[in-house]
């Protein structure tokens, strides 16, 4: 940083932060425009999700079915099948993306993913246990079981991973250990209890196909609270990204932030997993992509992740319906087949910026 | 011969120093203990089943003094299964250690970076699309594992392979392959699907000598290759530059190691299906048991063998009359043990 | 090779770069650069950030293969020699090394013996002696059973130097050995290097950031800018105000170091006021760690 002797800069310039690309206001405008475009994309995908399927519905009929319900065949398909499915995809996609982004920021680990840290396995194990040992049969109770399981695992992994002194590797190891344990438990129960196996089969597929409005209504409050919590912690998460000591120096309250974020992740993942089974890849990939676009600011990452994750999830779902018509591919399969190569390409280009 | 002692190691030397062998006491003791445990458990496992045989009788039969009935049960039915368990465990443990060392990351195990899924995809393709025999399924598994291994390595290559990138690319590949596997399962007819599910879970049921020999051959060739790379591999954990400065051809060591480890994983998977978590947990457990810096190959192999035999015992006993595939028990056992280790480690303040 | 007389018939130094073009991917750092490392010298390479000094060192240490030209060790292309044989002749202290979790100091230093070991020669009496001597020479002998992750930055750097010493090579390359160390440890490390050079007659090549330290310790100085050698020779002969301005773009005076008699570079004050001087010094200190990280 030796400056040319001929033109000494004023001391203030030396002390100032290095200039970003363009003025901050311009950058924010660009980010805002990007977010708007992403939202437009999401709307288009959502409309496609309502219109496309085993039976295609023209757009004017879609409009008609949504807003002037008259009980025609198309209207029924829209109201009873496509709309709930689309809503569920929107909500679950957003939840998984936001939870992934929050998890990666909290653990300062770009590999952190609710699936990798065992949260999904916890939800699944709790549901299996409930079905087999407590005789739970109603899908309404699954949500509570899944939430409890997810919460228990979050706390356990965080505690074993070293809580305050948690390192990314330790957290990942703890998550893997818990996942191993719980998957073993789930399989053991299912293999010895055929009733549980039968019930779980429908739940464990990772699909939007069985969506109904009751499910949507059931999980909506959890997701809403979780998303609000996550958004509220964006600012302290930005501070935490700089390291614990720096964050403390900046006045962030570490412990309470961590608890809030864990609560948000638990709510989001638990409810999403309860509704349509474990869909793992989205929470890992979308935040990666988003960080490449927005930079490391959580205040932008979270909304972007919330909009782009459902684009991926719903888009995959629509594609799954198109590819093998009149049958359909489960959304989890399509997500991975699209997301995997994209993810590898990103890794190769070195765009997976470390936190 | 002279013996010298430094902290924790025993050294054996000839008088003029032409030959010197070094042994870490704790690692050696741990390895011996693991071997004893694995063999004991193996003997118990041979005696376990519908027709129970006492361990003493098992030993008598193995040395050729059993009744004809026991002889048949032990030699033809049970022994191959136990030998497969020992070999598969050892192969997965050692391959896992090799991968984790190359990736410099405990998550860089074949489970996480997709070779297990690759083998499974190969086997499922043969089962579902080609309706092949069990030999063809095994061949499919080996081919799938190899292809995946090479693809992941090639995709992670950018002026050399960096451990972190290898893990990330592997996770991506793993997700794609898992999706392909679910698709194959959905597409399969009922009979094929049942066969595929059993294969995917990883099971030791009904293994006979035909499965033992190829696996034994693979282990006999590949394990010495890996062990030969061991010292150089340990140095690469200090960073590529530091290792190269000490005379290690880093990329060559890495490629040899990955190739041997992929083949070992594929051979094990062909014999018993993709048994989960052994490759991930065994090296970490062995490392903590021997208190060695970094993962080490031989203790990891012994730990893998011990884990798998114990898991098979658990799988046959713990769930009452309904036996579960061994892959279920490896997850339970390995996961619980790793969790316990992480907890105690934390309490003792070691990260 | 270690026993070969360095005074070969050609009269050439043991280690030299012959018209090497170096770079990463398609980015060229140096073009047709030729450098001789005088035998038994303590050669220090200096220059502003991104001038190619670390790149040159990596090439000399055969970590970076030249796109064109050759690096010669004892008259032979270094890349064609067996890796272990090179490692018995040429040691390197890289800029970034990772100590494996939980490794002890003695075990880490012992790893420096790798090029001397084999399947049947795993831990000879000589290995044991050399490791003990290396730890004594760097003052880490009393830390032998401590874990490397528990040590301070200065101690850790000395442990890494001990590992490089345990290689017992007549040539030793050090890539910014004083980075991240406080002034006391910087001097410790440089005194240690000077001692190694004087006592053993080792040839040392180091990349350093501090021009005054380079002037004080080096017997041979190479000043680089934009991938070219601007000047080389004994510090007292080549360090002039004109050279410093040409290489670093800093106006300065060169006076005699009252302690050692070597040249001392004193940058010209930009502002006569004390306040301005204070700000400049603080900002320079603040940018230092970030700047030293650049390749």
Architecture overview:
The complex is a heterotrimer of chains A (355), B (351) and C (295). With 355 residues, chain A is mainly alpha-helical. Chain A has helices at residues 11-15, 24-51, 59-67, 73-107, 119-133, 139-160, 168-192, 194-204, 213-232, 234-240, 244-249, 254-276, 281-294, 298-323, 331-348. The longest helix of chain A is centred in the N-terminal third of the chain and has 35 residues, at 73-107. By secondary structure, chain B is mainly α. Chain B has one domain: ABC transporter involved in vitamin B12 uptake, BtuC (Orthogonal Bundle), CATH 1.10.3470.10. Chain B has 13 helices and 3 strands. Chain B has helices at 25-46, 55-62, 68-103, 115-130, 134-155, 163-187, 190-201, 209-236, 240-245, 250-272, 278-290, 297-317, 326-347, and strands at residues 2-6, 9-13, 20-24. A 3-stranded antiparallel sheet of chain B has the order 1-2-3. In chain B, 58% of the residues are buried. Mean pLDDT of chain B is 82; it is low at 1-5. Chain C has 295 residues and is α/β, with parallel strands linked by helices. Chain C has a domain at 98-166. Helix content of chain C is 36%, strand content 24%. Chain C has 10 helices and 12 strands. Chains B and C meet through β2, β3, α8 and α9 of B and α2, β6 and α4 of C. Chain A: Residues 1-26 are annotated as: Disordered. Chain A: GO terms for molecular function: transmembrane transporter activity. Chain A: This is Iron complex transport system permease protein. Chain A: The chain crosses the membrane at residues 33-54, 86-103, 115-135, 141-161, 219-239, 259-289, 301-323, 329-347.
